[in-house]
Amino acid sequence: MIVVFLALPFLGNATDSDHWSVVFMSVLGVGMAGVFLYGLFETAKWHFTIGPESFETVGLFKTKTLAREEVAGYRVNEHYIFIVPQDTKASTIKVGYTTERYADIQEWLADHYPNLDEVEAVEAAEEALIDEELGRNPDERSERLVHASTTAKYLNIVAWAVTAWLFFYPQPYQLAIGAGLLLPLLGAVGLKLHRGALRINEEKNSPYPSVSITLFMPCMGLLIRSVLDVDLVSYTPMWIVAGQTASVTAVVLAFCTHEWLFQSKVKFTEGAALIAAAAVYGYSASATFNAAFDDTQGQVFSTEVLSKSMSSGKTTTYHLTVAPWGPFTTETDVQVGSNYYQATRSGDKVRVRLQPGRLGVPWFEAD
């Protein structure tokens, strides 16, 4: 790989006029070769040691040391063990899962130090069980958390299903869009009914179940549909409508959570999640509702196909560039389906339908 990176400037047929591209490829090649070479030497040099008095990691240019008596505990995720110091300003020791005897290291740490994630989970559960807002006694509070967890579980399952429906095969179209519009509102109702036992944001080690999947994922499905299915004449009126929808959504979510959202013990991330959910729903719901439930006949214009293009990624989209028509005085890009794209050639005449929009935001599609 290093040889390939260093050879980049010599690949292709550069001419004298291309000297800047040669310089760019030279810098890029040397830079990438350097990064790759550093990675090789760092991997070869790096090692982790548990000493009698400290932990130590040795890398190519840096050595980290943490005294054993200064360790607060450890955390584990899918790829790393984190040895956490008592002093928050000190560096955390990070051990990758590819490290030799990784399982033995984790077992040794478990014998000598607390798992901080487990400690935080226990403390958070104990704090929830003394929260008088959740009930009159620990049993009642525990029962409310269990009921909230059940609600969150089923709402989130349905939300995943609706998101897949919207993404892969949104037919019947209005029903799929309607389900995507409804699910976040049901999430808001759940927040209201469970009054603090159910949360917007999903926090690690928290005993409170979350409906973040219900609030966000259907909106992602709607957002995908708005990108793939809706061509707007202008985005300016949509931003206005989306802003209004987002504001109303934020008020609704605030009403459904006001009994606990503004308490000092509630983390800032809950408020941030509320604003984010309102913003995403504001645009995705407005854009898809405006087009999917626009039942007017609209106006049909005839125009000529100037060129065709397609873009591929996680999804493939097909576009026709057409001559000026209707409200457009310059050529316009029209998004079409794969069958329409294959059946159309440059120079063909096509019809474009201009719709007023259910919310008053004009949009168009190939007829």
Summarize the structure.
By secondary structure, the protein is of the alpha+beta class. The chain is built from ten helices and twelve strands.
Overview of the molecule:
- There is one protein chain.
- The chain is an alpha+beta fold.
- It folds into four domains: 2-45; 47-114; 136-292; 299-366, Beta Barrel (OB fold (Dihydrolipoamide Acetyltransferase, E2P)).
- 51% of the residues lie in helices and 19% in strands.
- It contains ten helices and twelve strands.
- It has helices at residues 2-7, 19-45, 102-112, 116-129, 138-168, 173-194, 212-229, 236-261, 268-292, 338-343, and strands spanning 47-50, 54-58, 63-67, 71-76, 80-85, 93-96, 231-232, 299-312, 316-322, 332-336, 349-355, 363-366.
- Strands 7-12-11-8-9-10 form a six-stranded antiparallel β-sheet. A three-stranded antiparallel β-sheet has the order 1-2-3.
- Helix 8 packs antiparallel against helix 9 (268-292).
- The chain is flat.
- Residues 12-17 have low confidence and may be disordered.
